[in-house]
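Figure 3 (text version): structure tokens given as input.
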């Protein structure tokens, strides 16, 4: 009976659970799926930093490639950060091969906004020689398995991958004017803020559930993503249409996001500690 009703009337099926303050997968409304991540430098040998994040069944990998380029004329003391989110057809039936679809483009723009608004990386830190040379960080975020809440997983994977980046020492030879790269002398990337995203699906215009699955996103009347940093500062609120939220509901989301930030930070610190040579 339950399988039939989930297939025929999925929204009614969900409402029966939500009335009891739980979800079909056994989670409470404010509970995240199991979150795991690890640095995957070995699996992407061409990347300067990489990480794989799993949020329930949603799996995202981020690879960061650092290249040298001349700064733009109007930003002589700044480097570049170029994020790109890919949703290949292998990650879910809803996606097709070919040029990036609307959802991938929106996710790429969201990531670019998070980088800018949070100031996680200051572009001036990527400058090597004013007007002459700067780093470009290409951040490719690829979804391997899609089951909702792409944005939280993508921000987490990006942050973890950036924390894994080691940049070689670069100097400019004054006689030749050419850059000289010392691969033996590497330093970690300067990360000034640690943004973490927390997403919610809205059910029936009023009920908020955290970390929605793909099914929950489809059945909901809207979604909202809150991004905070380690100081509890609000970096961005991303609400692509859907049902409006009251000020009180939004404040509830922000409070939950601040708690989530602590959980993610603890997880990152734990993994870094486990791989740091004693």
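Below: residues designed for each position.
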């Amino acid at each position: 009976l339950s399988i039939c009703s989930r297939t025929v009337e999925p929204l009614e099926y969900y409402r029966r659970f939500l009335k009891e303050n739980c979800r079909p997968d056994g989670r409470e409304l404010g509970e995240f799926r199991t979150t795991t991540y690890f640095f995957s430098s070995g699996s992407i040998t061409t990347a300067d930093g990489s990480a794989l994040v799993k949020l329930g069944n949603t799996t995202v990998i981020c690879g960061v490639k650092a290249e040298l380029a001349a700064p733009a004329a109007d930003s002589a003391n700044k480097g570049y950060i170029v994020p790109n989110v890919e949703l290949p057809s292998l990650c879910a039936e809803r996606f097709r091969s070919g040029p990036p679809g609307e959802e991938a483009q929106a996710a790429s723009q969201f990531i670019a906004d998070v980088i800018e608004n949070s100031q996680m990386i200051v572009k001036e830190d990527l400058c090597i020689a004013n007007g002459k040379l700067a780093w470009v960080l290409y951040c490719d975020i690829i979804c391997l398995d899609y089951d909702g809440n792409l944005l939280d997983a993508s921000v987490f994977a990006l942050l973890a991958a950036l924390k894994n980046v080691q940049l070689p020492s670069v100097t400019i030879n004054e006689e030749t004017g050419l850059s000289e790269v010392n691969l033996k002398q590497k330093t970690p990337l300067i990360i000034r803020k640690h943004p973490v995203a927390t997403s919610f699906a809205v059910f029936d215009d009023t009920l908020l559930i955290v970390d929605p699955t793909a099914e929950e996103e489809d059945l909901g009347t809207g979604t909202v993503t809150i991004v905070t940093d380690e100081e509890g500062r609000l970096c961005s609120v991303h609400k692509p249409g859907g049902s409006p939220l009251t000020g009180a509901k939004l404040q509830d989301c922000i409070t939950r996001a601040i708690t989530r930030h602590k959980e993610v930070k603890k997880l990152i610190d734990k993994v870094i500690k486990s791989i740091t040579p004693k």
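Residues 34 and 56 are 5 Å apart (CA to CA).
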